[in-house]
Design goal:
Helix 1 runs antiparallel to helix 2, helix 2 runs antiparallel to helix 4 and helix 3 packs parallel to helix 6. This protein has one domain. 67% of the residues lie in helices and 0% in strands.
Length: 135
């Protein structure tokens, strides 16, 4: 049973076909992420994730999504529904929320701390690597 908007709609519209529900959920999530990042990028940096905000704070500035970043993030997150039940848990707040859900993207509460630590390690890696890649 899905317990968030796109998951609920995907399940309701798919008529019991879980592959169709998964496809609907991944596509809807990816598309709305692309729209949000594109629109909010120039205004607020499109920091929909506290880890992204942390990286930019470490890097010392408010940067916003440019070029292909919205499409890349949307494709990565939307597509992640197909290769991991977690949709890759890119956000600590989402990780905690999914520890309390029975959706196909839920995780065990006991596993949540390890996911959050991995996200913070990824943030540190990004803070070190990004300036070298985009300077």
């Amino acid at each position: 049973m899905a317990s968030h908007g796109t998951g609920i709609m995907g399940v309701n519209l798919a008529g019991g076909n879980l592959a169709t529900a998964l496809l609907a959920n991944g596509v809807a999530t990816g598309l709305i992420l692309h729209v949000l990042i594109t629109i909010l990028g120039p205004i607020s940096g499109a920091h929909l994730n506290p880890v992204v905000t942390l990286v930019f704070a470490i890097l010392g500035g408010q940067r916003h999504a440019r070029g292909q970043v919205p499409a890349l993030v949307a494709a990565r997150i939307g597509g992640a529904y197909w290769f991991t039940g977690s949709s890759c848990f890119p956000n600590p707040a989402v990780t905690v929320a999914r520890a309390f859900t029975d959706t196909f993207t839920g995780i065990l509460l006991a596993d949540a701390p390890a996911f959050v630590l991995a996200q913070l390690a990824a943030a540190l890696t990004a803070a070190i690597t990004l300036p070298k890649l985009f300077s």
